[in-house]
Design a protein that fits this description.
235 residues, alpha/beta, Rossmann fold, five-stranded parallel β-sheet
Length: 235
Protein backbone atom coordinates (compact mmCIF):
# COMPACT_ATOMS: atom_id res chain seq x y z
CA UNK A 1 0.00 0.00 0.00
CA UNK A 2 1.41 3.38 -1.04
CA UNK A 3 2.40 5.80 1.70
CA UNK A 4 0.44 9.02 2.08
CA UNK A 5 2.64 11.94 1.12
CA UNK A 6 2.64 15.01 3.36
CA UNK A 7 4.26 18.35 2.58
CA UNK A 8 5.10 20.62 5.54
CA UNK A 9 5.49 24.29 4.60
CA UNK A 10 6.84 25.90 7.77
CA UNK A 11 9.64 28.44 8.23
CA UNK A 12 10.24 27.58 11.91
CA UNK A 13 12.74 24.77 11.46
CA UNK A 14 12.40 23.35 14.98
CA UNK A 15 8.63 22.94 14.56
CA UNK A 16 9.00 21.48 11.08
CA UNK A 17 11.65 19.00 12.24
CA UNK A 18 9.56 17.74 15.17
CA UNK A 19 6.48 17.31 13.02
CA UNK A 20 8.45 15.63 10.22
CA UNK A 21 10.06 13.21 12.70
CA UNK A 22 6.73 12.15 14.16
CA UNK A 23 4.99 11.83 10.79
CA UNK A 24 7.82 9.65 9.45
CA UNK A 25 7.49 7.46 12.56
CA UNK A 26 3.81 7.02 11.68
CA UNK A 27 4.78 5.75 8.24
CA UNK A 28 4.14 8.83 6.09
CA UNK A 29 6.41 10.05 3.30
CA UNK A 30 7.27 13.60 4.30
CA UNK A 31 8.61 16.59 2.37
CA UNK A 32 9.44 20.03 3.78
CA UNK A 33 9.78 23.60 2.56
CA UNK A 34 10.78 26.61 4.63
CA UNK A 35 9.39 29.46 2.55
CA UNK A 36 6.30 30.16 0.49
CA UNK A 37 7.71 30.04 -3.02
CA UNK A 38 9.58 26.78 -2.40
CA UNK A 39 6.46 25.34 -0.77
CA UNK A 40 4.21 26.17 -3.71
CA UNK A 41 6.72 24.75 -6.18
CA UNK A 42 7.02 21.49 -4.21
CA UNK A 43 3.25 21.18 -3.82
CA UNK A 44 2.79 21.54 -7.58
CA UNK A 45 5.60 19.10 -8.35
CA UNK A 46 4.83 16.45 -5.71
CA UNK A 47 1.02 16.76 -5.57
CA UNK A 48 0.99 15.48 -1.98
CA UNK A 49 -1.99 13.95 -0.22
CA UNK A 50 -1.93 16.69 2.41
CA UNK A 51 -0.19 20.01 2.97
CA UNK A 52 0.48 21.34 6.46
CA UNK A 53 0.71 25.05 5.74
CA UNK A 54 1.78 27.88 8.02
CA UNK A 55 0.21 31.27 7.31
CA UNK A 56 3.18 33.49 8.08
CA UNK A 57 5.91 32.56 5.61
CA UNK A 58 8.76 34.37 3.84
CA UNK A 59 8.32 35.27 0.14
CA UNK A 60 4.65 34.18 -0.10
CA UNK A 61 2.17 33.73 2.74
CA UNK A 62 0.07 30.65 3.37
CA UNK A 63 -3.17 32.26 2.23
CA UNK A 64 -1.68 32.98 -1.22
CA UNK A 65 -0.37 29.43 -1.46
CA UNK A 66 -3.74 27.98 -0.46
CA UNK A 67 -5.53 30.12 -3.04
CA UNK A 68 -3.14 29.12 -5.83
CA UNK A 69 -3.36 25.43 -4.98
CA UNK A 70 -7.15 25.55 -5.01
CA UNK A 71 -7.28 27.35 -8.37
CA UNK A 72 -5.02 24.79 -10.07
CA UNK A 73 -6.92 21.74 -11.43
CA UNK A 74 -3.93 19.49 -10.64
CA UNK A 75 -3.72 20.55 -6.98
CA UNK A 76 -7.26 21.75 -6.28
CA UNK A 77 -8.26 18.68 -4.28
CA UNK A 78 -5.18 18.46 -2.06
CA UNK A 79 -6.12 18.44 1.60
CA UNK A 80 -4.82 21.55 3.38
CA UNK A 81 -4.37 22.02 7.12
CA UNK A 82 -3.32 25.55 8.02
CA UNK A 83 -1.31 26.63 11.05
CA UNK A 84 -2.11 30.06 12.47
CA UNK A 85 -0.26 31.87 15.24
CA UNK A 86 -3.21 34.10 16.22
CA UNK A 87 -6.89 33.43 16.75
CA UNK A 88 -7.65 36.59 14.72
CA UNK A 89 -6.16 34.95 11.63
CA UNK A 90 -8.94 32.34 11.69
CA UNK A 91 -11.18 34.93 10.01
CA UNK A 92 -8.78 35.06 7.08
CA UNK A 93 -8.41 31.28 6.87
CA UNK A 94 -12.11 30.59 6.75
CA UNK A 95 -13.85 33.91 6.19
CA UNK A 96 -12.37 34.67 2.77
CA UNK A 97 -12.99 31.21 1.33
CA UNK A 98 -9.34 30.36 0.96
CA UNK A 99 -10.31 26.70 0.90
CA UNK A 100 -8.38 25.29 3.88
CA UNK A 101 -9.87 22.00 5.09
CA UNK A 102 -8.91 22.53 8.71
CA UNK A 103 -6.73 24.74 10.89
CA UNK A 104 -4.82 24.56 14.17
CA UNK A 105 -3.85 27.53 16.32
CA UNK A 106 -0.24 27.85 17.51
CA UNK A 107 1.16 26.96 19.92
CA UNK A 108 -0.33 23.54 19.38
CA UNK A 109 0.06 20.19 21.10
CA UNK A 110 1.52 17.49 18.89
CA UNK A 111 -1.02 14.76 19.65
CA UNK A 112 -4.14 16.77 18.64
CA UNK A 113 -2.34 17.98 15.50
CA UNK A 114 -1.47 14.41 14.50
CA UNK A 115 -5.09 13.45 15.13
CA UNK A 116 -6.30 16.21 12.79
CA UNK A 117 -3.84 15.12 10.10
CA UNK A 118 -4.95 11.49 10.30
CA UNK A 119 -8.62 12.54 10.18
CA UNK A 120 -8.05 14.63 7.05
CA UNK A 121 -6.18 11.81 5.33
CA UNK A 122 -9.13 9.50 5.94
CA UNK A 123 -11.32 11.78 3.81
CA UNK A 124 -11.49 10.87 0.11
CA UNK A 125 -9.86 13.43 -2.16
CA UNK A 126 -12.37 15.82 -3.62
CA UNK A 127 -14.90 15.31 -0.85
CA UNK A 128 -13.45 17.58 1.80
CA UNK A 129 -15.65 20.57 1.03
CA UNK A 130 -18.81 18.48 0.85
CA UNK A 131 -18.03 16.95 4.22
CA UNK A 132 -17.65 20.40 5.75
CA UNK A 133 -21.32 21.30 5.22
CA UNK A 134 -24.29 20.04 7.21
CA UNK A 135 -27.94 21.09 7.30
CA UNK A 136 -30.79 19.96 9.54
CA UNK A 137 -33.97 21.42 11.01
CA UNK A 138 -33.35 24.86 9.55
CA UNK A 139 -29.78 24.98 10.88
CA UNK A 140 -26.95 25.21 8.35
CA UNK A 141 -23.28 24.93 9.27
CA UNK A 142 -20.51 25.46 6.73
CA UNK A 143 -17.26 24.64 8.49
CA UNK A 144 -15.12 25.42 5.45
CA UNK A 145 -16.30 29.02 5.20
CA UNK A 146 -16.98 29.26 8.93
CA UNK A 147 -20.58 30.41 8.73
CA UNK A 148 -23.79 29.21 10.35
CA UNK A 149 -27.38 30.22 9.82
CA UNK A 150 -30.78 29.61 11.37
CA UNK A 151 -33.74 29.72 8.97
CA UNK A 152 -31.58 31.67 6.52
CA UNK A 153 -30.42 34.23 9.09
CA UNK A 154 -26.72 34.29 9.96
CA UNK A 155 -25.83 33.22 13.49
CA UNK A 156 -22.55 34.48 14.92
CA UNK A 157 -20.76 31.56 16.55
CA UNK A 158 -17.29 31.37 18.03
CA UNK A 159 -14.87 28.94 16.36
CA UNK A 160 -15.39 26.47 19.21
CA UNK A 161 -19.19 26.72 19.09
CA UNK A 162 -19.24 26.20 15.34
CA UNK A 163 -16.95 23.19 15.53
CA UNK A 164 -19.02 21.61 18.30
CA UNK A 165 -22.31 22.15 16.46
CA UNK A 166 -20.90 20.80 13.20
CA UNK A 167 -19.41 17.77 14.94
CA UNK A 168 -22.68 16.78 16.63
CA UNK A 169 -24.87 17.49 13.60
CA UNK A 170 -22.65 15.24 11.49
CA UNK A 171 -23.54 12.32 13.75
CA UNK A 172 -27.15 12.92 14.86
CA UNK A 173 -28.57 11.07 17.84
CA UNK A 174 -25.16 9.83 18.89
CA UNK A 175 -24.26 10.68 22.49
CA UNK A 176 -20.81 12.23 22.91
CA UNK A 177 -19.04 12.42 26.22
CA UNK A 178 -17.21 15.62 27.11
CA UNK A 179 -13.80 14.19 26.30
CA UNK A 180 -14.91 13.37 22.73
CA UNK A 181 -16.27 16.89 22.29
CA UNK A 182 -13.08 18.33 23.72
CA UNK A 183 -11.03 16.37 21.18
CA UNK A 184 -13.33 17.66 18.41
CA UNK A 185 -12.39 21.25 19.16
CA UNK A 186 -8.74 20.77 20.12
CA UNK A 187 -6.57 23.58 18.83
CA UNK A 188 -9.03 26.27 19.93
CA UNK A 189 -7.34 28.50 22.48
CA UNK A 190 -10.50 28.68 24.64
CA UNK A 191 -11.31 24.97 24.77
CA UNK A 192 -8.88 23.41 27.21
CA UNK A 193 -10.80 21.32 29.75
CA UNK A 194 -13.82 19.02 29.70
CA UNK A 195 -15.83 21.43 31.84
CA UNK A 196 -15.38 24.28 29.38
CA UNK A 197 -17.54 22.21 27.04
CA UNK A 198 -20.51 22.96 29.30
CA UNK A 199 -19.84 26.69 29.01
CA UNK A 200 -19.68 26.55 25.22
CA UNK A 201 -22.81 24.41 25.03
CA UNK A 202 -24.75 26.88 27.17
CA UNK A 203 -23.72 29.76 24.91
CA UNK A 204 -24.49 27.73 21.78
CA UNK A 205 -27.98 26.91 23.03
CA UNK A 206 -28.69 30.56 23.71
CA UNK A 207 -27.72 31.47 20.15
CA UNK A 208 -29.88 28.70 18.65
CA UNK A 209 -32.90 30.10 20.51
CA UNK A 210 -35.93 27.79 20.07
CA UNK A 211 -33.83 25.14 18.37
CA UNK A 212 -31.71 24.77 21.46
CA UNK A 213 -33.99 21.85 22.35
CA UNK A 214 -32.25 19.85 19.61
CA UNK A 215 -29.05 19.88 21.71
CA UNK A 216 -29.88 17.44 24.46
CA UNK A 217 -28.01 16.80 27.69
CA UNK A 218 -27.48 13.15 28.55
CA UNK A 219 -27.11 13.23 32.31
CA UNK A 220 -23.83 11.83 33.56
CA UNK A 221 -22.48 11.38 30.02
CA UNK A 222 -22.50 14.41 27.75
CA UNK A 223 -24.53 15.77 24.85
CA UNK A 224 -26.24 14.76 21.61
CA UNK A 225 -27.95 16.42 18.66
CA UNK A 226 -31.43 15.01 18.02
CA UNK A 227 -33.11 16.35 14.85
CA UNK A 228 -36.89 16.59 14.60
CA UNK A 229 -38.42 16.52 11.11
CA UNK A 230 -41.58 18.16 12.37
CA UNK A 231 -39.78 20.72 14.49
CA UNK A 232 -41.85 23.78 15.36
CA UNK A 233 -40.35 26.98 16.69
CA UNK A 234 -41.13 27.26 20.35
CA UNK A 235 -41.48 30.70 21.77
Amino acid sequence: MAQDRILIIEDEKALADILEYNLVREGYEVFTANDGVEGLEKAQAIEPDLVVLDIMLPSMDGLQICSQLRSNPFTGNIRILMLTAKAEEVDEVVGFNMGADDYVIKPYKLHPLMHRIKALLRRPLGETQQNDFVESCGIKVDRLNYVASLEGVDVVLTPTELRLLWFMMKQPERTFNRLELLEACRGEDNCSTERTIDVHMKSLRQKLAARSVLLQTVRGVGYRYVPASDFEVRE
